[in-house]
Amino acid sequence: MLKPRQETPDLTLSLINGTKWELSKQTPESFTLVVFYRGLHCPKCKQYLEDIHNNLDKLTEIGVSVVAISSDTEAVAKETYEKWDIDGVPIAYGFPIEEARKWGLFISKGIKEEPDMFIEPGIFIIKSNGKLYASSVQTMPFARPPIREIIGAIKFVTEKKYPARGEA
pTM score, two decimals? Predict the structure, then answer.
């Protein structure tokens, strides 16, 4: 399990725009927001990523860079980008289940129209030095922290120089 103030595993991911995204090369003013989502099959993920899209300007204003990651294939991730209103949100795909376990993410076996296996949601707020500041991991698509609350929290902790908690 990753703990606050601990170095996070590095991520090197392919984005649907044909570029690579590397966590170690991010230089946000305050934090990188890494959002793991279940995939195209999930209507709750659609709502969540669209909320991120609607708040990208606010996130940028407070010095936060964002990436959304799933274990979907490239084709499915591109379809997600086309079908959902998430223009401007960097979308990474093909995240291996084994790597997801290193991040402490829960894994589900698919039912009905779902993929055979996929990652459950997780939010990781990472300092520019690569250390975990805060996280929220779910076992299902519900009860994710609202983006407006994440924005408010980041404003507060940045202004007050509030330390990461939960490290013990």
Answer: 0.97
Amino acid at 149: E
Residue 1, in any domain of the structure: no
Instruction: Please state, in angstroms and rounded to a whole number, the distance separating the CA atoms of residues 147 and 163.
Output: 20
pLDDT tens digits, residue range 54-106?
999 999 999 999 999 999 999 999 999 999 999 999 999 999 999 999 999 99
Helix (H, G, I), strand (E, B) or coil at 34: strand
**Which residues, 6+ apart, have CB-to-CB distance to 101 below 8 Å?**
107
Check which CATH number belongs to the domain holding 102 and give it. 3.40.30.10
Domain interval for residue 119: 12-160
- Degrees, nearest 5: CA angle 37-119-3: 85
CB of 48 within 8 A of CB of 37?
Answer: yes
Q: How many domains does the chain have?
A: 1
Place of tokens 């204003």: 61
